[in-house]
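lol ok so funny story. i was supposed to be doing the assay writeup but got distracted and ended up predicting the structure for this chain instead. priorities right. anyway since i did it might as well share w the group, maybe its usefull for someone
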Amino acid sequence: MRSRERVADALSDALLGVLRSRGQLWLASRPDALITWRSAGGHLKISETDRWLEAPTSPAWEAASPQRRTLACWFWDDYYGERRNEITFTGLGLDSTRITSALDGALLNDAELSLGSEGWSHLKDPLLGDTERH
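and the output, tada:
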């Protein structure tokens, strides 16, 4: 799980030389929100687009499309559900070590992770703002 404040700090290193990128993030400041990441050239859009699915017995699971449920099953973790960080980068001569290092630096440490979603709700959110939380 990534801290949004640290993701903001990592952007310049992570996007250096990237032509396009897209994916989804699980961010500590919005632990139930599925965050979409898309970039093209110098444009980056990070937005809250959906909710992570809960257990297969939940109403949200039943309401989800068969395709969404299938994809969730591929990545399912008994503790975290379908939550994950997954971004694909496209560009010439990209330094995968630099990109990985920049984004790994945004991950919560063990002490922060142990705070749980209640503690994470107090983290700063410079990309979407603190007042937009659901």
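The CA atoms of residues 30 and 134 lie 8 Å apart. Residues 4-14 form the longest helix (11 residues).
back to the writeup now i swear
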